[in-house]
Design a protein that fits this description.
Elements lengths: L9 H13 L4 H8 L3 H13 L9 H28 L10 H18 L1
GO molecular function: DNA binding; transposase activity
Pfam family, one: HTH_Tnp_1
Keywords: Coiled coil
Length: 116
């Protein structure tokens, strides 16, 4: 007799692998919970760990390198922000806010009237 092979959808495979990995289950425990053969689930988990599970999925090494790149970009953006914050302070060590600008304009008007 020929044995019928069960076909599983990509969504089901991804959910099964996610369940095993997120809950840190062993392959045998995950297989018994999901009513799957251990070999099948083991192949899915191994493929997912290597990044072969589904098209578009990335390996752990790729994700870690992306995290490093994003952290570098974040640090660079923070440095640029800090430089711009310092640049907004004018020569008398006051921030260039609209209130300070109006206050200085008012002071100049008062001084110019008192001189006349």
């Amino acid at each position: 007799m020929s044995r019928k092979t069960q076909r599983y959808s990509k969504e089901f495979k991804a959910e099964a692998v996610r369940t095993v990995l997120e809950n840190q289950l062993s392959i045998s425990e995950g297989a018994s919970r999901l009513s799957l053969p251990e070999g099948t689930l083991g192949q899915w988990v191994t493929a997912a760990r290597k990044g072969l599970g589904t098209p578009g999925s990335r390996t752990v090494a790729e994700l870690e390198s992306e995290i490093l790149q994003l952290r570098k970009a974040l640090n660079e953006a923070r440095l640029e922000r800090d430089i711009l914050k310092k640049a907004t302070v004018d020569s008398i060590c006051q921030c260039n806010t609209p209130f300070n600008y109006l206050f200085r304009c008012f002071e100049l008007q008062c001084l110019s009237r008192s001189v006349v």
